[in-house]
Amino acid sequence: MDIKQLRALIAVADTGSVTRAASLLHIVQPAVSRQLRLLEEDVGTALFARGRYGMEVTQAGAMFVEHARRALAELDRARSELRVSEGVSGTVTVGLLPSTCDLLASNLVAEVASRYPAIRLRVLMGYTGTLQNWLEQNETDAALLYDPKPSPVLAVTPLVEERLWIVGLPEAGFVADEPVALADVAHLPMILPNAPHGIRSLVEQTCVNAGIELTVAAETNAMSVQKGLVSGGHGVTILPGIAIADDLTAGRLSAAPLADSLLSRRIVLAMPNNRRVAAAVRCVVDLLVAQIGEAVRGGAWTTAQLLQEATGGAQ
Description:
315 residues, alpha/beta, Arc Repressor Mutant, subunit A, D-Maltodextrin-Binding Protein, domain 2, 2 domains, 10-stranded mixed β-sheet, two-stranded antiparallel ribbon, 11 helices, 12 strands, 44% helix, globular, activator, LysR_HTH_N, DNA-binding, LysR family transcriptional regulator, WH_DNA-bd_sf
């Protein structure tokens, strides 16, 4: 088993075709087929089923592909750290929550490119459960998470706390400086994230504690769909303020903070504590934490409150 075989495995799994994989790897098709054959002989099982619609990954193959991805990611990371180059270098993978991407991703990419041109930055987006899983499997170097489940392999640093908002069409008349109690809007058709999304769990627990019964009109696993359904007149939703800042400015939606004290989310920086933190990772994380602090203090993230002085020195 060698690196060429693993790269061929992943390329075929991603493209579903030996021909397309060969093009992607810039080698001839017979070479890809040979790499797969040698790999299957080495592991002693079929990794693909050759069907009429292309190369379909078997159950064993799917498991092996995930291991191969992690192995190659670790090798790429090690190669980057060992490569002699000017300044800090390496590949850094950062995970961001959907609600924070628009605010942070572009500036982070620009800052890293300007200050650390030898760093290759990968920005992934996902909900907390997905990002935490990637962190625990060493597929991500750092991530912003919303109230993650306790994990012995993660070190977390609280960064900001943000109140949740009730969101509706402009004619709903919600006003930013007039908090609304959840009980007063519980009768409205509600569009909520699917369980076990963190916000859904928080809202449901608040309802149980207060004896409130919501009218759930629809569920979705995408924040953009939540807002789209509200815009389409299907009901109201509950989101963090940063997720609707542009919509409020453009007048597409109206919103008000929920008055219930428990309806707020805490965002933390999470990093694996079971491996050494590379210099490149530390540099990117410091930039990310500093940008969050600047966004809150500068008014770009008006709905958040800093839980520590985010100046770029996260521990």
